[in-house]
Specification:
CATH architecture of one domain: Orthogonal Bundle
Largest sheet: 3 strands, antiparallel
Structural class: alpha+beta
Strand order of the largest sheet: 1-3-2
Order of helices and strands: EHHEEH
Radius of gyration: 19 Å
Strand content: 5-15%
Protein name: DNA-binding protein
Shape: elongated
CATH topology of one domain: Arc Repressor Mutant, subunit A
Number of helices: 3
Length: 92
C-alpha cells in the first residue's frame, strides 16, 4: 500500500477517516460557529441550549448525553428565521 510520501491520497484506504470532508453532525458549539460562518447569524451556544428546552430552535439528535445538529437542519432553520427577502420596509 503506498504511503502519503509516495503521492497517495490521505484517507484513500479509509474513506470514513478523511479529515477533509465536513462533519455531518455538529455539537452546539460547532453549530453556533457554523451558523455564523455560513449564514452570518450569531446564535450563541447557550441560546441553542435554551432553544432545546423551550422550543424554537433547530431540530437535533441525541447520542447519549451529546447533542448533535445536522448541517441541513441548521441551514433550513436559518433560512426560515431569515424569512423572505424584502425590497422595502412598507407594509402595503
Amino acid at each position: 500500500m503506498p504511503n502519503e510520501s509516495e503521492g497517495a491520497t490521505p484517507g484513500a484506504a479509509y474513506p470514513w477517516a478523511d479529515t477533509r470532508s465536513p462533519k455531518p453532525r455538529l455539537s452546539s458549539t460547532e453549530a453556533s460557529a457554523y451558523l455564523l460562518e455560513q449564514h452570518g447569524i450569531h446564535v450563541a451556544r447557550a441560546t441553542l441550549d435554551k432553544y432545546r428546552c423551550v422550543g424554537g430552535g433547530p431540530s437535533f439528535h441525541r447520542f447519549g448525553k451529546r447533542v448533535l445538529y445536522l448541517r441541513d437542519t441548521l441551514d433550513s432553520w436559518a433560512m426560515h428565521r431569515l424569512g423572505q427577502p424584502l425590497d422595502n420596509t412598507s407594509r402595503t
